[in-house]
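Query form — protein Sugar ABC transporter substrate-binding protein

QUESTION: What is the three-dimensional structure of this chain?
INPUT:
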Amino acid sequence: MNILRFLPPVILSLGLVGCGQSSGPSVNAPPQAPAPAPAPVVKKDIGLVMKTLTNPFFVEMEKGARRAEKELGINLTVKTAAQETSIEQQIQLVEDLIAAKVNAIVIAPGDSQRLVPALKQAHDAGIRIVNIDNRLDPETVQQAGLAPVPFISVDNEAGAYKVGQFLAQGVSVPTEAAILEGIRSADNAKQRAAGARRGLAANPNIKLVASETANWKIDEAYTVTQQMFTKHPNIKLLFASNDIMAIGALKYLQESRHKGVKVAGFDALDEALAEIRSKRLAATVDQQAAEQGYQGIALALRLAQGSTVPLVTLIDSRLITATTLP
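ANSWER: The structure tokens for Sugar ABC transporter substrate-binding protein are given below.
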């Protein structure tokens, strides 16, 4: 008797499947090892050394650097001296960053020569260097055995030349002019004074009767302007190598009631733009302080990552007058 005839079809079907040929032994796959955790991103440490924060130009420069810190993902340490003439303090700040073992230093040096030995120490410690605003003296850099340092700024001579030309426009009678210089050992001070002289000299009616340093300072500019006008009371054109000194000169001229003196500055600080709107200042030059700060940090990061960067990066500058105010 065939018992299969009496089994329910479902049971019969299950039995046949169980007895059929398998494709091979059943193997359980071993548990996969978890993927390794990604290595943590190590941020580069970059130090920014500036001259001071008493000058709004450097406040803007720091803003640009802070924007770079946020966008580029680095650790930024900002150090500033008390005054633009505090060179020994700047040297100490560089030494502090060497001790902190930062990956790179971005510096706006107060002096084009005296900072070089400290920067050579930083280079020897494996720290990359970027120079912004005021250029380190190439000959001093070479003599120190320091490799050429990438530099970011504007063409200071060309910017000051634009101002000198603007001051000289329309002068058709013999006219006396004067210049307030920055720190004379600073390359940007030398370039701005040279550019202003060249621009003024383009008009044969203009005679430069005084060119004195006020060390970038508002109080010194007031005093030096007083001294220049005491000796040369007929000065009608005055170029100040930064806006801070221009404001100091304007203060003296206002208090002493000197009329008809055309004054120009350099930096496009908010205070200077307000003086242009009030028609007390004739012109200034926008050298994009925030952009210099941003690009300095960006270049330093590329160096710290092993990339090659250009030795010179010039940022556009523009003459600002009452007719070109932003």
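ADDITIONAL NOTE: The radius of gyration is 33 Å.
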